[in-house]
Amino acid sequence: MAAVTSNQEKAGPSICGYHFQWLALLAKSLLELARQAKKLGEDDPRRIINSLKAGLSIILVSLFYYVEPLYSSFGVNTTSAVMTAVVIFEFSVGATLGKGVNKMLATLGAGALGLGVHRLATLSGKTGEPVVIDLFVFAIAAMATFARIFPRLKAKCDYGLMIFILTFSLVSVSSYREENIQKMALERLLTITVGCFITILVNICICPVWIGEDLHNLVALNIEKLGIFLQGFGGEYFEMYEEGLPSKDRSFLQGYKSVFNTQSREENMANLARWEPGHGRFRFRHPWEQYLTIGSLTRQCAIKIDVLNNYIDRQIQPSLEIPSQVKEHCTMISLECGKALKELSSSIRMMIRAETTLLHIGNSKIAAENLKSLFISGLWKEADPLERAPATAVASLLLEVIQCTERISNAVQELASLAGFQNMESSRSLEQQQESNQRIYSINLQNHEITIGE
Amino acid sequence: MAAVTSNQEKAGPSICGYHFQWLALLAKSLLELARQAKKLGEDDPRRIINSLKAGLSIILVSLFYYVEPLYSSFGVNTTSAVMTAVVIFEFSVGATLGKGVNKMLATLGAGALGLGVHRLATLSGKTGEPVVIDLFVFAIAAMATFARIFPRLKAKCDYGLMIFILTFSLVSVSSYREENIQKMALERLLTITVGCFITILVNICICPVWIGEDLHNLVALNIEKLGIFLQGFGGEYFEMYEEGLPSKDRSFLQGYKSVFNTQSREENMANLARWEPGHGRFRFRHPWEQYLTIGSLTRQCAIKIDVLNNYIDRQIQPSLEIPSQVKEHCTMISLECGKALKELSSSIRMMIRAETTLLHIGNSKIAAENLKSLFISGLWKEADPLERAPATAVASLLLEVIQCTERISNAVQELASLAGFQNMESSRSLEQQQESNQRIYSINLQNHEITIGE
């Protein structure tokens, strides 16, 4: 008996402990979740607003179900408006508009085709009808599924093709039992259109997220990251620090690495941005394609920079024998290319034509020529070739970076002329003109007052 | 009059010509479409089969609508089975299974929650009911929309969260007017489950496309592309062609470029592959994560190779002064690394442990040591440093390629032990054992016959 009690005593605390452990684990993971949610919200507060907008658009659409006169005019199909609101609501205006337009057009087209097939199928009697319908459903579903792999269709109307198959199958199959299939198809089209419009309105009118603007900023940020690296590289590698740069904090040199993984994101963003109407500084047919060109040139430059970075990472510091002139020229190339890239980045961001980029590229080219003539002068012949190898490799890579910078500069200039970036002066003179207009206006106003006063 | 006739005559052919031009343009673009479709089909014939499978699964599900006893047990909700079949059918088994399981679980959870909210809302009377329902719909839709941005949830159950919002909104909102909401929710769950099962069965049973196998082959192919480049590079750069390699066809050196753009595709494939059941050589919990590690190391190596390729592209051929020993060692490093990578690739493809990879890497390391001591010996001191720069850069890059190859080799070996790749010998001995078993079996059979004969 005593043994049993002691066994129970032993078991008691251990089960309690087990439960306690389990609860503690649950509380810990809930806390972790909350912490993560807070971080995600802080990283991009638009996400929180977006969630509230999604809830709001569903509620607005659901009013059609609750309010009597609206409900009776749309019928049971009102639920498909709710489904539409859930499915097409996306983070950005471009994605929501793209899905909405796809959904409406596909529903219209597939509904009409479904009605046509129904008319054809009724000719073959009640027994033959499902066979004819299924033959058409099979053929059209198979063809539309195949169409979804065409690269151009996949990028622009993958969702529309799916909705096309869905609506066509639904209308065709339902037509077998539904008495008034035309009324049903029309009601469906109407409710979906209403659902789309409400969702798109909520998405555009309340704190809209323009994906085109995000693409614009992403491309500018990527170029800036390369610029930051290059401005720091020379000093870091040859230990000739410019004033103001921290000597051992190398984290600023790692920013460029994220540039490698943005290609598919950029392509997706450019596809969606085409749907967006003109807004702010962007007109309807903004040259989004050109951002992809700039992005791909940026990644090519990032590859060179990654190799340069290896020379810092692996601590292959050149020996002290490197002539100070070589150091100077290399640092100059890196610094000037960095300045050029940073100016290009802010030129994109502010949509103003870059002015001193060509000057910076010119400076780096002069440094490159000086570097080449230094090498030709045989200044370095007595040094150990192996010790010299990393430094010559770095020099040769820097020459390639100049080419990359020039290519990015050309692409940004093309963007500037396609998108009509303003000149720094013209933007200044515009400001001045506005100011002087303001002055003339206020003078006129005074005159007018004087006239009235008289 | 004559003038009018001549005008008509003039107008006649030009309108005809316009129509004719238009028709010709249409015919041309249709032909172009057919040509493109043929090419897409030939590139991957599985796409054609996939389209037919999609049509078939919709037809099979539609039978539930046509056949009387099935229809009466499922009711009007049968159309949602058709919608399910359209929406969850995807190219690969992993994607279809993932969507199907997400859809079924989300419908179950959201339906149950919707019924609970309905019960709660009825407590507040007919006027208060829609307000209570909408409060819940708003809160839950907003929370679920926010949850979709958590990276882990986004990768695994983004679709499930959308279906959760959809079903919950649908059940909650419908409960305001629907008399028997429990029956409706249950029927919906049932039809969706039936739709999912039929679609998944069609997808798995008829020519299944396993996305895990595609990932496996993609990773192996990418490594092979690097191997092909490295095997050809030495000969191409130093113009010391091995026997059998074509001298001026450099297209084989460009294959590696596609390696850069596969990261997001690989990640997506690994996410979907986790849903797939064991099949062929892959068991259920195959280490798909490890393929991502190998893929990322492959891309790091491709960056070095891209820089090497620049030296071929830009025709920076080294002058003839390069000592033949340097050429030999560089070519040896490149060739041996290429062989190692190609062996690793076929080791993955055949799921057999690589045997001679370490030997090849060892050879390239010996060549690297020889190259280093050549440089130290000062063999090259009298040459012009600028002419030497490209060659020293190439040599230095090749040393980095050895490190990359070794890292890939380690990652593949880890994959081999995680996934239980067989040894070449054990696989051979297994074959031999099977052969000898066969022999013993036939001898036994002969003995048996003899016994019977006796």
Automatic annotation (TrEMBL), chains A, B:
The chain crosses the membrane at residues 48-67, 105-125, 131-150, 159-177, 189-211. It is found in: Membrane. It comes from the Eukaryota. InterPro entries: ALMT. Keywords: Ion channel, Ion transport, Membrane, Transmembrane, Transmembrane helix, Transport. It is a multi-pass membrane protein. The keyword Signal does not apply. PANTHER family: ALUMINUM-ACTIVATED MALATE TRANSPORTER 10. Belongs to the aromatic acid exporter (TC 2.A.85) family. This is Aluminum-activated malate transporter. It comes from Hevea brasiliensis. The lineage of its organism: Eukaryota, Viridiplantae, Streptophyta, Embryophyta, Tracheophyta.
